[in-house]
Write a structure and sequence with these properties.
Blueprint lengths: L1 H4 L3 E4 L9 H10 L4 E4 L11 H7 L5 E4 L6 E3 L2 E3 L2 E2 L6 H11 L6 H12 L4 H5 L10 H18 L9 H8 L12
Helix pairs in contact: 4-7, 4-8, 5-7, 7-8
Amino acid sequence: MVAAHRPSVLVGVTGQPGTFTASMIAAMAESHERPIVMPLSNPTTFAEATPADILEWSRGRAIVATGSPFDPVMVDGEARVIGQANNMFIFPGMGLGAVVSRARSITVGMFLAAAEALATQIDTATLRSGALFPPIAAVRSVSRTVARAVADRAAAEGVAQPLADPDAAIDAAMWEPEYLPYRAV
């Protein structure tokens, strides 16, 4: 199927390990300089293929993003970061932007604004390393950026009033995971 249709992107959500084979990935790499392969099934034991196998089969050329966390893979002496394609980069900021702006509805445009904002959060060096997404550690700052874009788009589309100081409103509404210290009794 892959050899006949020559897709440039392969997305897996089957939950069946081994679904992506060496011949499939090699065929993609023959047709495309940088094929995109996304085994998204969770947990890692259900992924359609491992990033190490995908990179081996594509001679290091595939861009890989997974649904579960994987360690970096060494390719030609360099660590290739494996990005996690997870809704955690969109939904916290999507919800925060909608709540802070008091949007009356969620629009397609607001989702597009969220995706565009996410795309601005990955730098060239990270892209060169093979990652499609920012590091998980950046989720808080990514969420803030996404929230601002969502709130702005909600106002622009007329489903919310413009905020006087959107950044301050977003910062005030962000939850900080702080807990009182525990002590044994």
